[in-house]
Write a structure and sequence with these properties.
The complex is a heterodimer. Chain A is of the alpha+beta class. Chain A has 8 helices and 20 strands. Chain A has helices at residues 43-51, 93-103, 108-121, 137-150, 167-184, 195-201, 219-224, 229-234, and strands at 4-13, 17-27, 32-36, 58-63, 66-67, 78-81, 155-159, 187-192, 204-209, 212-217, 241-247, 251-254, 257-260, 270-275, 280-283, 289-297, 301-308, 311-318, 328-333, 339-342. In chain A, strands 6-7-8-3-9-10 form a 6-stranded mixed beta sheet, with helices on both faces. A 5-stranded antiparallel beta sheet of chain A has the order 13-12-11-14-20. In chain A, strands 15-19-16-17-18 form a 5-stranded antiparallel beta sheet, with no helix packed on it. By secondary structure, chain B is mainly alpha-helical. Chain B folds into 2 domains: 2-48; 70-298, MetI-like (MetI-like fold), CATH 1.10.3720.10. Chain B is built from 16 helices and no strands. In chain B, α11 (195-204) runs antiparallel to α12 (208-219) and α13 runs antiparallel to α16. Classes of the chains: A alpha+beta, B mainly alpha. Chains A and B meet through β6 and α2 of A and α11 and α12 of B. The structure holds adenosine-5'-diphosphate and magnesium ion. Residues 13, 17, 19, 37, 39-45 of chain A line the site of adenosine-5'-diphosphate.
Chain lengths: 355, 299
Amino acid sequence: MAGIEISEITKIFPGEVTALSELDLSIEDGEFFALLGPSGCGKTTLLRTIAGLEPATSGSLDIGDRDVTSLPPGDRNVAMVFQDYALYPHMTVRDNIAYPLKVQKVGREARYGEAEKAGSSLSLDGLMDRRPGQLSGGQQQRVAVARAVACRPDVFLFDEPLSNLDAQLRLEARGFLKQLQKDLGTTTVYVTHDQGEALALADRMAVMDHGVIRQVGTPTELFHRPANVFVAGFIGSTPMNLIPGVLGDGNVRFDGGVLPLNGRGDTGGEVFYGIRPEYITIGDVGDISGTVAITENLGAQFLVTVDVAGQLIRAVVAEGSEPATGDTATVNPDPDRVLVYDRESGELTPGAGYH
Amino acid sequence: MTGKGTDRRRRSSGGDLVTRGGAATIVAPAAAVVAVFLVFPALWTLYLGLTNRGLTGINAANPQFVGLENYTTALSDPALWNSLQVTFIFVSGSAIVGQAVLGFTLAWVFRNWQSWVRRALELLVVVAWIVPSSVVAFLWVAFLDGESGTLNAILGIETEWLLRHPLLSVIVFNTWRGTAFSMLLFGAALNSLPPSYLETSRLAGASPLQQLFDIILPSIKGYIITNLLLISLWTFNDFSPYLITGGGPAGATEVLPIYIYNESIRFGELGFGSAISAIMLVINLLIALSYLRAGRSRS
Ligand SMILES: Nc1ncnc2c1ncn2[C@@H]1O[C@H](COP(=O)(O)OP(=O)(O)O)[C@@H](O)[C@H]1O
Ligand SMILES: [Mg+2]
C-alpha cells in the first residue's frame, strides 16, 4: 500500500515547453485522486512522470516509502490504463491481461488464474479467448483495466480512460471503476478534463492550469468554495456567474444594481461577485431586473440567461417555472452562497460565502 | 434482418451505379493490357519450353516440338542444381538476412533519433537505392578490385575478392543496394505502432529484447511478410550479379536469371532457356503463395 509524495516536480520538454512547474502534491494511500484541468495543462505529463515514462527535469517523487525519482517504470510497481487502451491485437484477451505477469516471470498456470480472476471481476468471462479486435469499446476498456488489476500494483494510473466511450457507457464504466477501486483499495490517480467525471469519482481532486495546481480538495470543497476564478469557472456543469463590481457596504455594486452580500463590512475593492446559477432564483419582484436573453432546456431544469444592463447572468430554474425569452425578470441571488473574488488576483477573498 | 436481406439482394441485382456489363467495359482495357504484357508472354514461354527453338540457325527458323525433353534435360543438368543452390544462398543471404535483418536493425536503432537526423539518413540511404544498378555495380567492382580496389587499400591487403569470395561479394553488394527499402518500410511500420504498446510493457518491466519479441515483431508481422515477399521475389529475379561477376568464376555466382541468360542468349538454346524460365515462374508462384499463406494464418 502506498501514497504518493510529489515535491517540486518540474518538467521542461525540449523547445522550452514547461509542462510542470515546481509542482507539489501529496496523494494518500488508498485514495481515488482525480487530476482535472483543460487540455494541455500538463495532466498527462504529471501522470507519466509518476509512471516514470517521462523523467522529471527536477524535483522528487516518492511512492510508498520509496524514493522512485530515478527508478525505471518497471521498478515502480504502478499500472497504467491508457486512453487508447494499448491492447495487443495479436494476443487473446487472456494473454493481454496476463502479459505483465508473464514479463514478471509468473508461471503459466498462476498467471492465467490471475487473468481469469481479474477478467471475472470486470465481467469478461466468456470473452477471454477473443482478440481485442473482436470486442466493443466498452469491453476493450474493461480488458485494459483488468490487465492493470491483474498485476496488483501499488498505484493505478488512468489517463482519460473513458473519453473514447459514448455517454451511456461512460456513465456505466464510471460506476464500476468507482466500485472496483473501493473493493481493491488501491491508490488511484485519474486524469480527466471532464469536471463531472472528477466530481463523481474522486475522493479528492486537484485542478491544474499551465503546469501548476490551482486547488486541491474534496469534490464538495472545490464545488462550493473554488479558491480562484479559474477553478470557479472550470467546476460545475454550468459555470459560476462572475459579475464584476465594486465592494460596497455589505453588498457589491455593478451597473445593473446592488447585489446582496452577507457578513462583509469592508468596502471599496474591485471584485467579482461569484454565484452559481443553481443559487439564483428568477422572479417578478427584486432590485435587479433585466430581459431574458436565452432559455436552454437541461431536462428537469432550465438554464435562463438574463441580460442585466449588458451583464449576462445565468440562473437554473425548475422546469415549468422558466420565463419566456424577451420577458422582463428579476434576478435574486442567495446571499449565503455568494463568493467574492479579488478582481486583480482572481483569488477568493475571505469572509463571505458558503462554508 | 429483413433490411439486410433486401440490401444484399439489391446490391447483387445490379441496382448500383455500375451494372455488371458496365463494369466489364470499364476494366476491359486494363485486362487487355495485363493479357498482352503478362499472360501472353507467360504462355509463349511455356510453349517455347516445349520446343527446341534456337536463337539463330535452323532451329530458329524451324523449331521442332520436343515435348518435355527440355525439362528432363534441365533436371539432370548439374549446372541447374548448382544455379538453384547459388540462388537460394543469394536470396537468403542478401534478401532475408542482409536486407531484412539489417534494414530492421537500422530502423530500430534510428527510431528514437531526432527526426531531422533520421530524415537525413533516410535520404542518404534512398540515394543508394535509386542509383542505377549498373552504376552501383561499377562502383563495387572498383571497390573490390584486387589490385587497386578501395577495400584492399583500407584493409592494407591484396585479395581478389571477386575470385576468392565471389558469392559473398554479390551478397554484400545486393544487401547494400536493397537495405534502404527494408529500412524505410520497417521504419514506417515502427512509427505506426502506438507508443502506448511499448509503454505498457515497459511499465510491466519488460526488457528491450522482450519488447522486441513479445510486442514489436508480432505487431508488425504484416509489414514483415510483405517486405520479405517483395525482396525475395526481387532478389530471386535479380540479374545484376552478372554486372559484377558475370556469373563466374565457374558458376559460383550463377543465379537462375544468369543461368537462363547464358543458356538462351549466349548458347542460343531459346527453347531450353524457356523451360527453365517456366520452372522459375513456378518457384516465384510458390514463394508468393507461401508468404500469402503465412500472412493469412495471422488472423
Ligand atoms: N513529448 C512532448 N514534447 C514536447 N512537448 C510536450 C510533449 N508532451 C507534452 N508536451 C507539452 O506539454 C504540455 C502539457 O501536455 P499534456 O501533459 O499532454 O497535457 P494534458 O494531458 O493536460 O492535455 C502541452 O503544452 C504539450 O504541448
Ligand atoms: Mg492528456
